[in-house]
Amino acid sequence: MTETLYSELPSQRTTPFDPPAELGLLRERAPISRMKFPDGHLGWLVTSYELAREVHADRRFSSRAELQHSPRTVAGKPVPQRPAAKPGMFIGMDAPDHTRYRKLLTGQFTVRRMNQLMPRIEQIVAEHLAAMRASGTSADLVAEFALPVPSMVICELLGVPYEDRAAFQEDTAKALRLDSTFEEIMEAFERLEDFVLQLAKRKHVEPGDDMLTGLIATGELTDEEVANMGLLLLVAGHETTANMLGIGTLLLLRHPEQLAALRADPSLVDNAVEEMMRYLTIIQFGTLRTALEDVEIGGVVVKAGESVSISVAAANRDPARFERPDEFDVRRSAAGHLAFGHGVHQCLGQQLARIEMRVGFAALFREFPDLRLGVPAEDVKMRTDMAIYGVHELPVEFS
Question: Among 14, 74, 260, 397, which residue's beta carbon has the most beta carbons within 10 A?
Fold first, then answer.
């Protein structure tokens, strides 16, 4: 194939629910393309579903933090190359370290345990919807529902005091802002690391029925390892689901025929959640891998040391995998989408996220059958300035 040099990762959206149009054009022309990363590194951009799965599944492509070149900028500047991942930061590691940490966490994230949480999740959702109803006939759905529900769930699961949520939510937002400087991001993460580390140390004398206590009880981890594993879960466990609840509600309100189908047949909620994950793909910059050796893929050779940026958003809209991929259809089986990743690094908390979204969306539209936007759709402020996409606020009205 003819090698294509792409100067940067397309990031400008022209519509609120669709990835940058350039990604689709690029996928058709060259599903693996040469890309010059912001720091000058010459690597690759993958935009097709088939190649995205292939790179995710191939152990010759590394997730080690110190090997990655970021496709994004922070405050308009290239992201400096990172050092090796700290103990417990398993998403930036390969086997055997990644395997060891993930195995310890898998025991905490069993499907059985997640399903046992459902009654408590239903209670948390019901309480927040009741409070929203009691507050009047309008609300900011993000502040009163989408953000607090997953925040409370992950706090209870990890054993984090919910009254401390303001601090970790503020630092998480700072770390995810695209206009934060690298120094501001690092300072936010350091505060988050210290917050969870102090909590982990307290668990030795004040154990609970929570995940941090469970990790400590294995006897195989230092407090630093427990804290860093907990930090990853805390950040991912509330930001991603919160933004899916927010933008997913906007998506349904903007597609009344799909919302009507879901209301007519509530059993479609499972399909709807998977389709929203596929259609929206809120992780804006996809995933990164770096070749450990020369690897031939998609008709090109990725040289050892070259980073590959995988556009999950483009892969999830690939017509070779999903029929009519640019249409939102709650009746579609979107099984196999890559919103939770693929391979050994696939999201550990995906079952929890699914339960929260199924319960959340079903209850929201059941309790508020006339839910509607409180502002013109074009006035909803989208999170184009954040690494995780969504809505900053979602004013809604109801009777």
Answer: 74
Tokens of 94: 């390969």
Q: DSSP secondary structure string, 160-174? A: --GGGHHHHHHHHHH
Question: Sheet of 42-46: strands edge to edge?
Answer: 5-6, 32-36, 42-46, 307-310, 287-291, 61-62
Task: Report pTM.
Answer: 0.95
**With left for phi above 0 and alpha for psi between -120 and 50, is residue 281 left, alpha or beta?**
left
In contact, 44 and 29? CB cutoff 8 Å? no
Which tens digit of pLDDT belongs to each residue from 265-305?
999 999 999 999 999 999 999 899 999 999 999 999 999 99
Counting residues of the chain whose pLDDT is more than 70, the rounded percentage is 98
For residue 273 the two structure tokens come to 């959640």
Could you give phi then psi for residue 293, rounded to 5 degrees? -150, 170
Retrieve residue 275's tokens. 């389709």
Token digits of residue 72 = 């994004």
> Residue written as tokens 């300035």?
385
pLDDT digit string, tens, across residues 94-125: 999 999 999 999 877 877 878 888 999 999 99
DSSP symbol at 181: -
Residue with tokens 């590959």: 308
Q: Evaluate whether 312 touches 56 at the Cβ level (below 8 Å).
A: no
Spatial CB neighbours of 203, under 8 Å, sequence gap ≥ 6: 159, 210, 212, 213, 216, 226
Half-sphere exposure for 354 (CA within 13 Å, toward CB): 19
Q: Please tell me the distance from the alpha carbon of residue 87 to that of residue 221, in angstroms, as a whole number.
A: 9
Angle separating helix axes 97-106 and 223-254, nearest 10 degrees: 70
Name the nearest CA neighbour of 291 among 88, 29, 130, 60.
60
Q: What is the DSSP string of 148-162?
A: HHHHHHHHHHHT--G
pLDDT in tens, 171-198: 999 999 999 999 999 999 999 999 999 9
Peptide bond preceding 96 in cis form (omega within 30 of 0) = yes
Can you tell me which residue has the tokens 């609120």?
A: 16
Q: What is the dihedral of CA 344, 168, 385, 23, to 10 degrees?
A: 10
Contact by Cβ (8 Å): 153, 159: no
d(CA 172, CA 236): 9
Please give the structure tokens belonging to residue 277: 């994950």
